[in-house]
Automatic annotation (TrEMBL):
<comment type="similarity">
    <text>Belongs to the AHA1 family.</text>
</comment>
<dbReference type="Pfam" id="PF08327">
    <property type="entry name" value="AHSA1"/>
</dbReference>
<feature type="domain" description="Activator of Hsp90 ATPase homologue 1/2-like C-terminal">
    <location>
        <begin position="24"/>
        <end position="158"/>
    </location>
</feature>
<dbReference type="InterPro" id="IPR013538">
    <property type="entry name" value="ASHA1/2-like_C"/>
</dbReference>
<protein>
    <submittedName>
        <fullName>ATPase</fullName>
    </submittedName>
</protein>
<dbReference type="InterPro" id="IPR023393">
    <property type="entry name" value="START-like_dom_sf"/>
</dbReference>
Length: 163
């Protein structure tokens, strides 16, 4: 069940993690915030004190993306992937692999955006290589980082709609 304004994380199977959250904005704008580097850099920054130092997006099927974040100690965390499916503004499927392979191999993430009464409901499903890999990811500060980023996305969406 979708929530409203708060991140919810569930594990419907041994290898899956599903994140849901609602935003008070049209899905075309949420999709743009997920796919345009100039917008990604404004919200996907992780926990307080982190910065988004590399944000490259080649938005086409088979196109690659590369993201690198830097924590408060100056340590980089990078990841990249390949876009597998793109259906603007409702669906985005991509692979992901962190530079330091703490997730046990490549993951597959499906982002689905649905809109109802001016609200966008986000559902992001990630499939890991194993239950251990999924549980390892859940054991990190990932939820804290995603919550912080989604809160920034909500503020960005509000500002973009005003302009």
């Amino acid at each position: 069940m979708m929530n409203s304004g708060k991140l919810e994380i569930t594990t419907p199977s041994d290898r899956e993690m599903v994140m849901t959250r609602a935003f008070n904005a049209p899905r075309t704008l949420v999709f743009e915030c997920y796919t345009k580097p100039e917008l990604l850099k404004r919200w996907m920054t992780g926990p307080e004190g982190w910065s988004f130092v590399v944000c490259e997006v080649d938005l086409k099927v088979g196109g690659k993306f590369r993201f690198v974040w830097r924590n408060v100690r100056g340590t980089d965390m990078g990841m990249g992937g390949v876009y597998r499916e793109i259906a603007v503004p409702e669906r985005l499927v991509n692979t992901e692999l962190f530079d330091e392979d703490w997730t046990g191999g490549e993951t597959l993430t499906t982002l689905i955006l649905t809109e109802q009464s001016g609200k966008t409901f986000l559902k992001s499903t990630t499939i890991y290589s194993s239950k251990e890999a999924r549980d390892g990811a859940l054991g990190t500060n990932m939820e804290q980082g995603m919550n912080a980023s989604f809160d920034k996305l909500e503020i960005l969406l509000e500002n973009l709609e005003k302009n």
